[in-house]
Write the structure tokens for this entry.
Amino acid sequence: MFAYIGSRTTKERKAIGRGITAYRLQGGAWKEIQVVPCGENPSYLCFNEAKDRLYAVHGDFSTVTAFAVAEDGTLEEMNSAPTYGTNPVHLVVSPNGKNLYVGNLETGCITRMALEKDGSLGSVQQVVFVPGQEAHGYISHPHQVCLHPDGKWLLVPCQGRDHGIGKVEVYAIDPVDNALEEAFVWTARKGAEPRHVAIHPNGKWVYLVNEKDSTAIFFHFDEETGHLEPQQIMSTLPDDYFGPGWASGMVMGPEGKCVYASNRTQDSVTVFAIDPVTGRLSYRQNITTEGKQPRFIDVESGGETLVAANELSHTLTRFAIQEDGSLVREPEQLREGSPVCVVWKL
């Protein structure tokens, strides 16, 4: 298995990342095989379905870069293309592999880019602006573009910020050309700032993490209409913690047993058990990452390990996932400059 780490690289971010770093994973050990210095802040990464093409946004800037993935795990840059937006923060390939969706945080828009037959980046096909408050030019700020498992919907949590609206936009995906059309909007309470969602394998339960008020919300999702119906809200912070919170990631655990949320200011991961009948959450665990500002978390491809990328301490913490979904922190950390994303290829 191979792992690819995206990073921050610019002095404006006080970053020390080297670009995209590729590792070979063998017997639990990570061996560095390549460093790709591919421009500023190659931060969030995603694969196509075949995992022979890798795409990276350049955070704080306005471009995406495509890479070919060789059998030995190394990357070769193919091309870069503009997103027609500023500060792209998340991206995902369309269900049929013909488009790339990119969320541009600063300019409040979602870009649909063509993917050529060889997997390289083509032209921009659509730019959807996410409206903010009712005033000229006000936009919201999308922080994730998340495909529903059935391929019919794109869920987009939007922070809102000063002049936007904190909400989750649900877009219907045209089955022919992948065009997006707004189908539903769920509005968060003021100041919550929705950031990321995770979708249960059954497709009917959606879990949202709100950045500023450090909460997790459980929704019923209507797969026919795209509507979200909130059912439950919980804090991502322990009930005996009284310090500041700043939630970031939300990721589904193996077999949908648990969902995990990362807390940057508290530097921890919170584990919520999912009731297999109702989908409701119950607090299971809060565990420190022993690192500073875990901006990103995800479960590696084998489903046995959760990884937290500690951006400000330049480390990655690995947790063994137990049968009940709880976490046991592994003692050794991986050193990597300003890490903000990890993806895996089997």
